[in-house]
Target: TonB-linked outer membrane protein, SusC/RagA family
Amino acid sequence: MRTFIVLWVTTAFSFVPSNSLSQNAIIKVDTDTVISATEMFELIQEQLGYKFVYNDKIIAEAPKISLVKGKIEANDLLLSALNPIDCTYELTENRTIIVKKNRTFNSSVQQLRVRGTIKDAGGVPLIGASVLEKGTSNGTQSDFDGNFTIDVSGNDAVLVVSYVGFATQELPVAGQSTFNITLKESAAALDEVVVTALGIERSKKSLAYSVTEVGGEEFTEARETNVANALAGKVAGVSVNKTVSGPGGTARVMIRGNTSLTGNNQPLYVVDGIPIDNSNQGSAGMWGGSDGGDGIGNINPDDIESMTVLKGNTAAALYGSRASNGVILITTKSGKLNQGLRVEINSNYVFEEAINLLDPQKEYGHGFNGEKPTTQSIAWDAGESSWGARLDGSDVIQFDGVSRPYSYSGNNFDKFYRTGSTFTNTVSLSGGTADIGYRFGVSNMENESIMPNSEMKRQNFSVNLHGKGLNDKLKFKSSAQYILQDVKNQPGLADSPNNANYSVWQLPVTTNIYDLKGDPNRLGAHPEDATDLYGTQGQKGYELLPSSSIWFQNPYWAAYQQQRGYSKDRVLGSASVQYDINEWVYIKGRAGIDQWDRLSGGIGPTGTGYAPNGSISESQRKHKETNFDIMLGSDHEFDNGIAYNFLAGANKLRIQENTTSVSSNNFALPFFYSVANGISNSGGSDITRLGTHSVYGQAEISYNDWLFLTGSGRNDWFSTLNGRSIFYPSVGLSAILSDVVNMPEVIDFAKFRTAWAQVGGSTDPYALNQFYGLGVAQNGIPQGGISGSTVANSELVPLMVTEFEVGLNMQLFERRLGIDFSYYDKRTEDDILNATISQTSGYTSAKVNVGEVTNKGVELLLTGTPIRTNDFSWDVSFNMSYNKSKVVSLLDPEVDNEVLNIERSRSLNTWVQHIEGLPYGQISGFKYVRDANGDIALDDSGLPIQDTDAGFVPFGTGVHPFVAGLRNSFRYKNLTLSFLIDMKDGAVMHSGTNGQLYRRGVHKNTLVGRENGLGVLPASQIANYYNYIYNNISEEFIYDSGFIKLREITLGFRIPKNVLDDTFIENATLSFVARNLWLIHSSVDNVDPESSYNAGNGQGLEFFGLPQTKSFGFNLNVSF
Model:
């Protein structure tokens, strides 16, 4: 959202005195506000030091002025209040401004009447534009349609036409009686102010690096439960992977590629100037698990004023070691000074549906070797096998001993997953006096997942205060959030235990999933004793297994009886105080805290197929992070056009985390779920402490507001490294070429920028030395020993990321077209990772500084306004980025083509690997042996041949190098329509789900050979063919994971003002909102190309995650 100043003035601008304030006298507006003329005088006095002399009765007639966050020339600001009351001002030598009435114009010399229309470059009428006869006080203003009429002294008169935010024009009358005037926006009006590192607000044109600001409204309509997911497709250079894992799921956000081979690659999130914890609290792996959520997912979208993405190292260098992956700054909403009480209510309700891409074969049912089961025992064994006979509608026995028609039983996918919903209500109170602005907010969100019996509730309470005192020399800001989050039964993912998706997707089409409900009071359980059919597993209340395999769970049992979840209390707070020592020097202190307490647990109930005696686990994790900053700053502009901005400061960071866990197995009393009821118990606790001390500084020197040179430095001292510190320098240059070079007429603005920076990173606590721990007790005495399986390294040094960036920003065709282009070259060296060592040493790995990764890429943002009239406008933006990554070296620089395994697929035959010389995160596995024609070669038994000679081969990266987004926004009077198309390309994925569908005979491709066999392989053994492929051939399940999606759409209607005039409501907007409505393009069978079961570095593996969802609903915003 553009943050430049726009003053909507509905009355005339007239006389401009010759002794007016300098163009360099700039007023900074911190936030949107409405002020009176006297308050405007106070604002100018506060920032520029001028005193005012005026008549109270005259000034009382001046209209109020609407200000939007940004910068404005003091002269324009003054005239916006004085012209409507026919006043001007004089500036004395002792910095006093005298306000007085204009002289009366002598109408007897008027000789010529002039009419005209004033519009902007888009043809929109400008209301209240000033039309002045030069050298006189004779003036008028344009009306609602931009029209004006003025009587001037004669043909020699010159019209001076001005409007706040636009360049002033002088037009000789020269006998002309009609004028059609088009004003151009001035560069000063477009001097956007953005929040940068450490919360410093800077002019965007001075920045030597790429920054993108996303307005808070982008997150509040077509919203996500995790606000980070809403960034998808909106920012060039930012890739978002939504982990489809149910309520409270984690978001993976990457800025300009992955910088670390095995470490954290997500950006640092900073809320109101304070870094917050965004660690993942649990995730699924090859053997299963669930998503424990992250930190950014706790933030309420309705509290966000803006989100600023600092993409380059230069932009983030002031944050030091925590900023090697970029920084995302979140500014929360606050009240405005001099504003009465304002109440805002936002209500958002959306439905959520599972996107059913599963397209199973519907011609063959449960059974083996092309035959129907003839007994309950065979049918139970075949509960996960679709290798039976062709469907013929005859009665055939099933897993529970009941005979049912051997025919398609319906869509089990749609039967099992429910329609989810998210209902969010937020109420805020805001306002302010002349000295204090405030905002209080409370929000309640209730989310029901598409997974039955899975839900999340979140309550957010927020308060923001800011103000001034001590003759405006003292300024303070504070914000606090209290967050309560409760997640019930987050779904199991990946492998089968606790994962309902695993069974739902693989059930034979002859099995109706409703037959697995069993006991209506204990879904998924035997309603009566059935030990005669199932043995001990058939006891009443035990899991009703659809198959004799204990790992093929009843999906209702997994959803309703397996219990897991967590609750989290979190406090985020920041407070800062700034004292202005004089007009150009200030001192500032800031403190912040992020503290949370998370209770989690799980129950494996009595009767679970794979663990019938039951289990229970409980864990509590407490996290506290504090930041303290002290800063000294100065900024000043000299008469020769040189200006500077300087900041120096220090930071103290402390993080502490305590974890206590306990688990118990084999309940002595069935169905009694208590840790004390377990026969075998275990537990432990862990304490982590770390700290960092830092000093930092930044200086900017500018010349005539077109050339800017910026340098910064930060030095960190880590508790996690052996007395070592690291210095992070950065330097940048920005030049407004359009201010000093004669450009073609079509170019309105052009800026060149370049920057270089280094940032680094430390390691986890306690990596320098082996540490002692207590283990299992013997004779009641805990046995101590060296903990961990990794060899410590006292010589570790920080990893280092060096980046060079160059860019160009342009505005063309009356600012109808905007271009923002960046090229970057980023290199990571001395990465910190665990190197595998021989287990005969007693350890499995050693902590070392090794590895080098590069990321080179381009980013492009195009913005345009093809049509803009008074009633209709069309805005379009396109962003794209391409990142070329390369693993330059791994553990041993002397070894070529070295490989580092990152994550293994559940099928065990595919890995995510780092391979020297190739892009980051290669999906690797075995391929087919093929003949000279490219056909698959078969062995003597008719099975495909695994290419063991080639061994593991890379099929491509699992990380999309190309990411793009296209947004179109239309406005017709009070109606708005906006939609976003999101696209990614250049990566592959290994679909374990499709592999399992091959293995079970569910995939449509497995129809081939069922009737006549394949080659020498008879039809009765065709299952062996597809099972062999699943276990041995990765190539079959490698897919191009590129996609195009209709990511977001909103259709809004703002109730006209005249309708609300007789009500207490100030504004009201009703919108239809939707997300993920259409998968426009995909090459992946049965699953969504974005499917992933965790947010780790091993991207590109998929195995029975929760289905992707589409959502649609309504958003209502009312203020009064």
Remarks:
- The CA atoms of residues 222 and 539 lie 48 Å apart.
- The first strand starts at residue 26 and ends at 29.
